[in-house]
């Protein structure tokens, strides 16, 4: 991303999540399976950041609204991580040289909604 923006002239980064995401469902259910466990752990902060519903029995992959809220939160946290981890991109973003935006792709309708 740094190369694309700083040297190749990219002006827009889009962090795109999608509805009904299997990885997010796995993180919501706290799935554990080999190398998958490490990847899902990266999504857990988004699971924890979504505070609704409070009822623990509804905070799982069976609740599609919860899953989609977690997926959207994961997009926002990913943008924050990009800016935290890359001084190059953060400086370019802060100076207005590039934009970093989040969006969600609806797998049923094909619509993309920018956050």
UniProtKB/TrEMBL annotation:
Coiled coil: none annotated. Binds 1 zinc ion per subunit. Keywords: Metal-binding, Zinc. SMART domains: Pro_CA (SM00947). Zn(2+) binds at residues 18, 21. One of its GO terms (molecular function) is zinc ion binding. It comes from the Bacteria. Pfam families: Pro_CA. Its cofactor is Zn(2+). Belongs to the beta-class carbonic anhydrase family. This is Carbonic anhydrase. The lineage of its organism: Bacteria, Pseudomonadati, Bacteroidota, Flavobacteriia, Flavobacteriales.
């Amino acid at each position: 991303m740094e190369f694309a923006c700083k040297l190749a002239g990219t002006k827009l980064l889009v962090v795109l999540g999608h509805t009904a995401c299997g990885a997010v469902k796995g993180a919501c259910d706290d799935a554990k399976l080999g190398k998958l466990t490490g990847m899902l752990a990266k999504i857990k902060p988004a699971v924890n950041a979504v505070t609704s519903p409070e009822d623990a029995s509804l905070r799982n992959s069976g609740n599609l609204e919860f899953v989609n809220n977690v997926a959207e939160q994961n997009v926002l946290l990913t943008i924050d991580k990009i800016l935290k981890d890359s001084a190059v991109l953060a400086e370019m973003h802060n100076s207005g040289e590039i934009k970093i935006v989040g969006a969600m792709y609806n797998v049923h309708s094909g619509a993309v909604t920018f956050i």
